[in-house]
Design goal:
Blueprint: E1 3-6, H1 14-28, E2 33-36, H2 40-48, E3 52-58, H3 59-63, E4 73-77, H4 80-90, E5 94-96, H5 101-115, E6 123-126, H6 133-144, E7 156-159, H7 162-170
Parallel strand pairs: 1-2, 1-5, 2-3, 3-4, 5-6, 6-7
Length: 171
């Protein structure tokens, strides 16, 4: 299984969980391909577990001096649009960890594509310490207001722990 992990960590409490997730994903995959952004600890955990790490970053990030040393493969795209397109092509699952504006923008784009059935991949929001509770409530409110439906939200999951993430990936 090729898995995209969109990593953006601003919470030190999440670090141990990210490492555990990376190790558990290696145990469940035959290819060991992980596409990671911005989080060296997870990358190191994957490598230390025998997995391979592929990074996809736009040229503008490379130009800022962001390095990706020690990963198996680095793909540099001309821009963010191409980066997101390539991530969708290479991944068969998307996991959003607690992050900032970039994480929110990228995962909501994936959620939209899953909802429209333009993307057949699980979209999992790692709701560590309730981080995504408000977004989950918003999706419920959209259903209540007849602006969405359960069917449209199929494939979008909120997982409070690693075991639930693994169950979502096994579906």
């Amino acid at each position: 299984m090729e898995t995209l992990l969109k990593i953006s960590a601003h919470d030190n409490a999440a670090v141990k969980q990210y490492r555990k997730l990376a190790r558990s994903r290696k145990e469940r995959t035959k290819t060991g391909l992980f596409v990671l952004e911005g989080f060296r600890l997870v990358s190191d955990a994957v490598k230390n577990s025998g997995g391979e790490v592929t990074g996809i970053i736009p040229q503008c990030i490379v130009d800022r001096g962001v390095s990706a040393e020690g990963i198996s493969e680095l793909i540099v795209t001309p821009d963010m649009k191409e980066r997101k397109s390539m991530m969708r092509e290479k991944a068969d699952a998307f996991i959003a960890l607690p992050g900032g504006w970039g994480t929110l923008e990228e995962i909501t784009e994936v959620m939209s594509k899953v909802s429209l059935k333009h993307l057949d991949a699980p979209c999992i929001l790692y709701n560590l310490n309730g981080y995504y509770d408000s977004l989950k409530q918003l999706l419920e409110h959209m259903i209540e207001m007849d602006l969405s439906s359960r069917e449209k939200q199929e494939g979008i999951y909120f997982a409070e722990n690693l075991e639930k993430i693994q169950k979502c990936l096994a579906k």
